Amino acid sequence: MLISLHWFIFLLNLPVAAWNIYRYIMVPSGNMGVFDPTEIHNRGQLKSHMKEAMIKLGFHLLCFFMYLYSMILALIND
């Protein structure tokens, strides 16, 4: 996105990328990954993980339609 000078899209995706990097770095050693199935059910973290997943789903849906609009606009203008 930076190479093609799409600054708005880059700045829109930057917080989500930073959050994903932060979550990956903060995984305790010994866990299978960010969403360790045994830890989610043992600690009752399922509700918070579902909330985070729904927020990410909404963000990606918004980005999808923005990208689709940009692509259609680029095809019409050419």
Task: Give an account of the 3D structure.
It is a single chain. This protein starts with 6 loop residues before the first helix and ends with a helix. It has one domain (2-77). The protein is mostly helical. It has helices at 7-25, 37-43, 46-77.
Question: How would you sum up this structure in a few lines?
Answer:
This protein is mostly helical and 78 residues long.
Structural classification: mainly alpha
Note the total helix count. Answer: 3
Radius of gyration: 17 Å
Quote the distance from N terminus to C terminus. Answer: 20 Å
Number of strands: 0
What shape does the CA trace take?
elongated
Total tally of structural domains: 1
The helix-strand sequence is HHH
Kindly state the mean pLDDT as a whole number?
83
Membrane topology: Multi-pass membrane protein
Transmembrane segments: 6-25, 57-76
Protein name: Protein cornichon homolog 4 isoform X2
Keywords: Membrane, Transmembrane, Transmembrane helix
What's the structural blueprint in terms of helices and strands?
Layout (H helix, E strand, L loop, with lengths): L6 H19 L11 H7 L2 H32 L1
Q: Can you give keywords for this protein?
A:
single chain; 78 residues; mainly alpha; 3 helices; 74% helix; elongated; transmembrane; Cornichon; membrane; transmembrane helix
